[in-house]
Amino acid sequence: MRHFEVELSDTQWQLIEPLTLGRPGLSGATGRDNRLFVNAVLYRTRSGIPWRELPERFGNWNTIARRFRRWAMAGVWRPIFIAAQVRNYEYEWALDY
Length: 97
What we know:
By secondary structure, this protein is mainly α. 52% of the residues lie in helices and 0% in strands. It has helices spanning 10-16, 34-47, 61-73, 77-84, 89-96.
């Protein structure tokens, strides 16, 4: 199996962290480690593996899969994807010109 290194940089995490669920100070349950969870999702997406083949360093695969579904049902992923995109303004300008 190919090894994939997909980890959020500190800058990427700063962009999306305010959009995650379960942050300290919010009502409801607090996520144990949102950054590790998002990294697990990125790893699975990049590698194309089934949930149950996630490396143990990410935690219990079933817990991660259920949490992914909860975030999907709550509409959390779309704002995260939008915030994480790097815009190419030069290309955009060329299209608008």
